[in-house]
Structures are given as C-alpha cells and as structure tokens.
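Much of what follows relies on a compact textual record of a protein's fold. The record below shows the convention in full:
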Amino acid sequence: MQSNTYDFIVVGSGSAGGVLANRLSENGKYTVLCLEAGVKGAKYIWTRPPLGVVFLVDNPAVDWRYESEPDPTHANRRIAAPRGKLLGGSSAINAIVYNRGQKLDYDTWSQLGCTGWSYKEVLPYLKKIESTEIGSDEYRGRNGPVKVTESKKLSSFFDYFIKSAQATGIPYNPDYSGKSQEGVAMAQLTGYRGERHSTATQYLEPARKRKNLTILTGAEATTLILDGKRCVGLRFQRNDVMREVRATREVIVSAGAANTPKLLELSGIGNPDILRQHGIQVVHELKGVGENLRDHYAAIMKWRFNQPGISLARKGHGWRLGIEILRWVFLRKGLIAQGHGSMRVFARSYPELKEPDVMMVVSPYIIDIKTGKSRRMSDIEGFMMYTHVQRTESTGSIHIRSADPFAPPAIRYRFLDTEYDRKTAVAAVRRARDIARAAPMRDFIAEEIAPGPKVESDEDILDYIRKSGQITQHMVGTCRMGQDAMSVVDERLRVHGIIGLRVADASIMPTIISGNTSVPCMMIGEKCADMVLADAAHPVTAREQSAPRRESECADS
C-alpha cells in the first residue's frame, strides 16, 4: 500500500468533479487530489472535433460501455448507457449541447425542501460557467471558462424545419437558456471555433500546473475508508497496484449517477438488504442509495426526403467526407465542427400546459445505431428526431451486482412506468409528426421511415417506443438530495450521517432536468465548491452535520 494525504479528494473528473478540482485548488490554501478511472487526457484525438462523438460512444478506451439489465416490458432489451471514462468524464464524450433546463426544474427542487437550489439561487452559478454572446446579461454569463456558441445552418433544412414548427404554433426562440425555454432553436454548444469544451479542457488543463493540485488518471476507486461514521480517505487501483489516500477535510464523490452509488455500496453505505446479499458489511444504512434512477427515454423517428441536397447525408460519406475532414482540420468549420443534434424543439404536449414538457432533438441526417451502441451516419437522404418526455416520473435503480469493485453496476430502468410518462411520450411523437406534416417540410418528405405510417394508435406508438427507444444519456437521481428517509445527501450535498463525505454529480438531482444534464452538473460542481470552501473556513460540527432528517421534506414526487 502507498499512502498520501490531501485536504480534499475528488473522485471523478467529469462535469462536476473537474469543476470541483479546479475551484478547491484555486486559492492555493488546500491540497487537492482528483482521481479519474480513465487513462485518456484532454487532448485525446476524438474528443476535440464535436462530431467525434460517433467514435467515442462504445469505444472501450473512453466509455464504460454500461448496459441496462433486460427489461421484459421492453422486449427484454439491454439498453446501452454510455458513460465517459477519461479526463472530463461524460463532458468529454457527449454531443456538446448546452442546455440548462427550465426555471421550473430548480424551483421544484426548492419546493420539495432542498433549500438553496431554486432557480434564482443557482442562476449565478450557471452564469459563472459560461462565456457567450447569446441572450441577455440577465440570464447569460460573459466571462466563464466554457464558451457557448450556436450551431450553424449548414443546409436549407434548418429554415424549412423552423417554418414548419412555427406553422404548428411553436415559436422560434433565439435563446432557450434565457427567460423561456419554449420554442424551436438552433442548438447551443459547449464549443468554440470548432472544438469541444469539456471540464478537461476548460477547468482541469488550466489548473493542472498548480502545485497544490494532483490529477491522477487510470485510478479507479474501489472503497471509501471509514473511521466509524467519518470518511477519512479511499482506496483505488492504479497500474494494477492498490493504493490508499487520506483526506484531512473531505472526500467528494463525483463519479456519476452510475458509479457514485456503486462506490457507496462497496463501502458499506446503502440498503442493508442489498449489501448483505453481496457479503458487504453494513457500515451505515441509507436505503435511498441507488434508487430514484431517471433518464430521458426517446422514440427515434426518421424521414426520407424526396430530393437530395436538403439532408447532410452526403457530407458523411466518400470524398465529401474527406472535404469535411479537411475543412475541420484547417478551418475548424463544417459538419465535423458541430455536435450531433444541431437543432432543438421544446414544446408543450397540450396547449393548456404552462411549460414545455416535450423535447425533440433534430438532426439533418439519419444515424444508424448498431446493436444500440455504435453510431454511424446513414447514406439515406433524410432527417431524424429523438422525441422524449422532459420530466419523467418513472424511476428505476442502480446497484452493485457483486462485491467485485471492477464489476459493472446493475442498471434497471423502469421507463414508461406511469400514466403521465406514457401519455406524454405518445404526445411527443404526435407533435413531431405535426411538424413533419406542416409546410414547407411536408413538400420535401417522401416517407416516414420510423416508426412508419402504420404505427398510429397510442398502443402501437408505445409498443414501438418500448421495442426501439434509446436513452439520451441523462442518467440522474441515484443519490438524491433531500431530508426524507430515502434521500442520500442534504442540501449542502453532505451524505446523511457520514462526516467528511459529500456527493456532487447528477446523482443528487431529486428530479430530472428538462434537457441535457452536463451543464447542470457543472453548476452542481461550482455550487458544491463554494459550500465546501465555506465550511472549511467555518467548520461544521459533527453534531450539526448529523442532524436528524425531516421525514416530510424533499420527498420524491
């Protein structure tokens, strides 16, 4: 065993962890260790071009390649659940779409009893992340580390689509991260001059020369070290050697919604029944660990055009692809400079709703998904949409499958488990069809390829989604924030009943965000860093931290 001591240990370098490592080491007062299980760094070749995402997903060099357990209600399919395994975590392999979600999301957290997490209170942190020319100063940041730009209209498709969406009553929205999310818009991207911005490039690279910050890649955490009810460090494996590090102040787990509950359970924190089933000694009972799993589950819809030139399909093949590669290499422009899903629609499933409850991810080409994992551009001249419910109610779980720290967790989704989710999922498909059937789009469409015109009834649409739906990789909620018996962390992200241990990543979200989750996770990292530093300056007593939970607050809705 090799042993070292730091003030703070951050487990994970992703959307939250990378931010934490930077901010906790920024003032130079504290020593910080950031551990990343992956071995690839910020300059890994496919992380730089935004469209490199097609070479990142299902790539064992940078993706955990998790899959869900077979679900008998969804044709016994295993659903691919990509998770970033490299510096920057999933922020380094995602589609670089910038999306905060809605004011409603954060106000809901606050109304559930999670004080300090209302939209008004998190907005300064959202602004702190970004530097953009989009929108107004009231809502947007101008001086943050992550550049936010807008997708370019690379073909006539985009204007046709916008006009058709408007014809169905969906307004054009120049800033869906501003006052209102509703509308059709070009996607906002966490990238600049044709290159991805991740926490690896924008938070860790600028900080890595600090003497008080140590970043270790290829370091997979296996267990937390607990002294009674205090976390004092953790064990990890690197280069086939088991090592041990100590934290004089805190350990912050930012391993993501899949691996954070796994690490807690391996350390004896969780549901006693599950821990005993796998021969793990119960150190601290928290039945909510691994529960409340939510994600966005999308129907994949495809249309074929009746003429060439509207789709971007030709740019993805042959000599035209070669030209696009050269355009990116020398100019940082073109197809490869944009992420997948370059347009967004945020719509209400029914007119009487106050806020959008449906999101559509729109691409001017068709992606073929092989075995639910690898993705390649089809040569069919057409376009596709992922349509999904924004605020899903159905919840699943993620738990260890054994005491082996290197075994993948068991992911059990429960999609379309509530009447609301089923009703809204069907409405999302119908809203997408409304746009495709409106002028001018309808004049250019030869046929609906998927789900196809024969899939029309509510039951047939649901059956199609169950048999072919895919997640949009927004896994959240498995160590949720709150004060009731099923919560795992309090509003300051401290693990209930354990001193010196926090969680800061997508797992703490009580409910799912109305959109992509990477930027909200960066916000969680920024806010957590402020809370950790404030508590370091004015230490919280063990008695205060271990205060009894109020059973009625922050209950799952």
